[in-house]
Write a structure and sequence with these properties.
Elements lengths: L3 H9 L6 H13 L4 H13 L3 H12 L6 H13 L3 H14 L4 H14 L2 H14 L4 H11 L8 H12 L5 H17 L3 H21 L6 H14 L2 H8 L8 E5 L6 H9 L4 E3 L5 H12 L15 H15 L8 E4 L8 H7 L4 E6 L2 H9 L12 H21 L3 E6 H6 L1 H11 L6 H4 L36 H4 L8
Helix pairs in contact: 1-2, 2-3, 3-4, 3-5, 4-5, 5-6, 6-7, 7-8, 8-9, 9-11, 10-11, 11-12, 13-20, 14-18, 16-17, 19-20
Length: 492
């Protein structure tokens, strides 16, 4: 097992340099070369510092060991998946199943991989096999609920009763109860029991908030608003003009931004279906660069003020670092889509690094987008478990976007989710024209595209475009008073 200090160092440096964690991990593996959890951590750290090739080498070296424990194969399969080696991940999981065909973790991993690929029938076969031998598998119930949300699965009365029993059982961990409560809420909403669904979403979010607090994560509006203030104060038109002169002229990156659940995954999938484009998913690299800049520039000031201590070489090195990560496995693509939605916070940095890059700003009805955030089990976005906090973030997002529009000479397409789903052909043409890509019918049929999709809406984006999510909030209007005071009367 990985020793505690290694995990702690990695967690504390999740957005910044972690040289000590890397050194500690290597030292640990010198003494414990068969510790596959330590190998997995080493691979994460290597990938974090931009050495994905070495990370894959370490993973493959471990995969070459004689393994007798199915859990070891699961560890390696999850590591391979995190490195973007999806085919290898499935191979490793299959090898593990040869040792134990009833292993729930390996079956669930394969089911999740099948959902990523859009192979829903195969995913269902794996999930049914799991429940045959592990009738209380929380992960299986969660994935079945995702499929049920798109009418791809129908729960039996017995399965629904068992989910409720597990939620109420005091022996169920808070983590599992949270997952099951979200799953139950999704099922109830699919059945149009909206009041019961909202009650279950509330319960799920209360559990989620407790888990965040136990992990030391608590949303505090004051520092978040302060960071928005710092960006507004620092990024003037003059500062942007001066620093962007050092940026990289590449037009390859396309940054898709907006609030979570605003249609960003749909936009990425439409563009990624084009033969001259590719999708990079949600790349954390811009946030990492922002976190690292103060250290790299040897500045005693935080981001964004540390940009004033950066020279041409620092700016260009940061741009090249981003392009190197963006281009991994995507050579030849004219446009590569980065849909890290919260990158709206870093638009000033993005424009400085890539003044010619395109930005697609996805917008959606404020109540729909905020409610959808509340209904989604993000697991990593700690402001999404309270309607009031979501309202604060939405207000600050709008405030910052108004500033960017005023000071940044962006190549920006403002795209409304409702317009795109009501008239997909016109919306798709707007996207392609903006990216200077010729029309291709594959973009219209994006949901048929082969390949892995890794996003919270991975089931939805495998379906033809639908309009049923418009005005979803109206089913829950009587529950939204904690949110409404934070929202504008109309989206700008």
């Amino acid at each position: 097992m990985v020793v505690g200090p290694l995990r702690n160092v990695f967690q504390l440096n999740a957005l910044g340099p972690a040289p000590k964690a890397l050194a500690d991990c290597r030292a640990h593996l010198q003494q414990n070369p068969d510790d596959l959890e330590a190998v997995a951590l080493l691979c994460q750290l290597l990938d974090r510092q931009g050495d994905r090739e070495q990370a894959i080498h370490q993973m493959e070296a471990a995969a070459g060991l004689v393994l007798t424990d199915p859990e070891d194969y699961l560890t390696l399969a999850e590591t391979a998946e995190s490195l973007g080696e999806f085919t290898r991940s499935r191979e490793l999981a299959q090898r593990g199943l040869c040792l134990d065909s009833r292993h729930a973790g390996l079956r669930n991993h394969l089911a999740s991989s099948c959902i990523d690929l859009g192979h829903f029938d195969e995913a269902l076969r794996h999930l049914r096999a799991v429940l045959n031998h592990h009738p209380d598998s929380v992960a299986a119930f969660k994935m079945l609920a995702d499929l049920a949300s798109q009418r791809l699965y129908s729960f039996s009365r017995g399965e629904l009763d068992r989910i409720v029993e597990l939620i109420e059982d005091r022996r169920t961990s808070q983590e599992d109860a949270c997952v099951l409560a979200f799953a139950h809420a999704v099922i109830l909403e699919t059945q149009e029991h909206h009041a019961e669904a909202f009650s279950q979403y509330q319960r799920a979010n209360q559990l989620q908030r407790t888990l965040f607090q136990k992990a030391g994560l608590r949303f505090d509006a004051e520092p978040f608003c302060g960071f928005v203030d710092a960006n507004i104060q620092y990024f003037t038109a003059d500062v942007v003009h001066e620093l962007s002169a050092w940026g990289d002229p590449s037009q390859t990156p396309v940054f898709v931004i907006g609030m979570p659940r605003s249609g960003t995954s749909l936009v990425e999938q439409i563009l990624a279906a084009h033969p001259h484009a590719a999708g990079a998913g949600e790349s954390p690299e811009i946030a990492r660069i922002a976190s690292d800049l103060s250290h790299i520039a040897k500045s005693n000031r935080p981001y964004p003020q540390c940009l004033s201590d950066c020279d041409r070489q620092t700016i260009q090195a940061a741009a090249h670092r981003y392009l190197d990560r963006l281009g991994w496995g995507r050579s030849g693509a004219e446009r590569v889509v980065d849909k890290m939605i919260m990158n709206f916070i870093y638009l000033g940095l993005i424009h400085i690094l890539f003044p010619q890059a395109r930005v697609i700003h996805c917008q959606r009805d404020p109540k729909d987008v905020c409610l959808s955030c509340y209904f989604c089990s993000f697991g990593s976005i700690h402001w999404a478990s309270r309607l009031q906090d979501i309202g604060v973030v939405y207000r600050e997002y709008q405030r910052l976007m108004r500033h960017w529009r005023a000071v940044l000479p962006l190549r920006c397409l403002e795209l409304r989710y409702e317009d795109l789903v009501r008239n997909p052909d016109a919306g798709t043409r707007r996207l392609l024209d903006f990216c200077e890509l010729p029309w291709d019918d594959q973009c219209r049929d994006f949901f048929k595209r082969e390949g892995t999709v890794r996003t919270g809406s991975r089931v939805q984006v495998r379906q033809p475009i639908y309009t049923s999510s418009i005005d979803r909030w109206k089913n829950y209007e009587r529950f939204l008073s904690p949110l409404e005071s934070w929202l504008p009367s109309s989206d700008d």
